[in-house]
User: What shape does this take?
Amino acid sequence: MLGASPVEAYRLIVAGALGQPERVAFVLSAWAPLLLAAAGLLVTFAAGLWNIGVEGQVLLGAVFATGALRALGHLLPPPGAVLLAGLAAVLGGSLWALLAGALRAYGNVNEIFGGLGLNFIAGSLTVYLVLGPWARPGIASTSGTLPFAPSLWLPTIPVPPLEVPGEVFLGIAAMGAVSVALRGTYFGLHLAAIGRSLRAAHLRGIPTTREMLRAFAACGGLAGLAGFVLVTGAHSRHQLFPLISGGDGFLAILVVLLAGRSALACILISGAFAAISMGSLQLPLAMQLDSSMGGVIQSLLVLCAILLRGLRARLVSREG
Amino acid sequence: MAASPPVVFAVLGETLAERSGVINLSLDGLLLLTAMVAFAAARATTTLLAGFAAAMAVGALVGLVVAVASLTLRQHQVAAGFVLTLLCQNLAYVLGAPVAHLPGPQVAHLPLPLFRNWPVLGPVLFSQDPLVYLSIAATAAAWWYLAKTRPGLVLRGAGERPAAALARGIHVTRVRYLYTLAGGALVGLGGAAFSLAVKPGWSRPYGIEGTGWIVLAIVIFGNWDPLRGAAGAYLFVLLQTLATVLQSLMPRVPTQVFPTLPFPLMILALLLVTVGNSEWVQRGLRRLPAGTRRGVVRVLRALQASPPAALGVPLEQE
Assistant: This one.
């Protein structure tokens, strides 16, 4: 239909993602923000919340991290500045998520629409900052702010034969922490109860509003960290630019939908999705295929998984 | 006025589907995909009608996927819809790449001969393209169908009290299938109205990204009513036009900021129609003096939006 062989396309995607060590390094650095955002989404999904605002929370994290580095980069020793930038990103993402949470909790605005609106506002805020107050000296262009010095980049950790970007470990640690928190704390149990039935949880005396807001804040914080990684990561562009998140938040939602709330599955699937995203960037050069092909493959996979899950449940209930 | 048909058609389509109890969340991607399909089909066949038909077929097809996933396979409607949003958007970019930035057919204006020469109102109301007339007629038809006809009653029953409808021998699932498909087709008509009339052609990005989400919000703002929904659609198009005017008045603000102006307004509008349901507003109201309270309550009531009772709730068949 597209005048291109699908087998050839898949081969190109795989080669584009894993063909050379530096390609693998790029996939790994695309993996980290996905891991962080997906870890956050596990928290909100546990409470049955659709935090589609995650995309904007990633952006706000990137904005806050950039702001902190711009302000503190000269004042503090680099590790301190980077650490504070990370904390600022967590703060920015949580605040943006709390806004969507407050709209839901106090204004009855469905979190899908509150979050979406906030996504678009975060997008225009980023463009405004890049073109306005944070523009490069002399030229204001959409290509981004002045890149940060290498001393402010996250380190890579050698795991022969690869140089693994440090943020990957951050992402896996976040996934582990979320997994433990959801299973082993009162917060996690409360969220599970809210996810099953908001009403029943409320009647059983669980402070539902507070716990829901905390879930939003936790997800936003992790999404903000994803934004921080997009700015400071070892293989990132080390600057703020429009579309910096490039749909990472939405992709993380797909990951969690496919993984069905299992942290381990999230880790594996987000890795595969990062590979597909990076690999499909090779398609336009080699086959004149649009790089959105990666998005088509990813969403088609998730759609099939949803349909198959339903089909299986239906067959099982027929037999039983 | 000329820019309104796509939004109006999409709002009507989604209203129909949601009144029967099914959320088709895929709108933002679906509008893009159907716009691309309409343009590609109209270009390939050099027939406008083929473009509209193809877009409506694709819209119905995506509606079918939502229906199968949620009604037959009992998966989460929002999950299926969200995935379809991304799938449709990416498909539109991939499949549309060969026809991007190419010229193609578009709908011509059709002034109504008798009325066109009326002063002031004539040029505004009666010198539009046929889609404008069609969208106005469709709004009236949708309202009449929902409010006054027996199939409309069945449709509302499926969305409000599915158990009762079932008890009366109505095939609730079949009804929901029907209107999810019909609603999808109407959304497809909206997409076609973009690429064949309002924004002729195709490109990436096409420039309507985000409109589908606004449409979903307008359906809520419109309290799931065709007339109020259409009013919301006209209001949105008006605001969009104002944003372009504002842009030319304020050259120092980056141009990318203006297209996002509708979104804060969308949040405010949703807040306005839903805040009356929340506890703290009720508590606050009790403290107001009686006279003021009655006034405020009346305003809130009038604005209040309440969804069809069984929206998104799967039907439990015993």
Q: What stands out?
A: The beta strands of chain A are 156-159, 162-165.
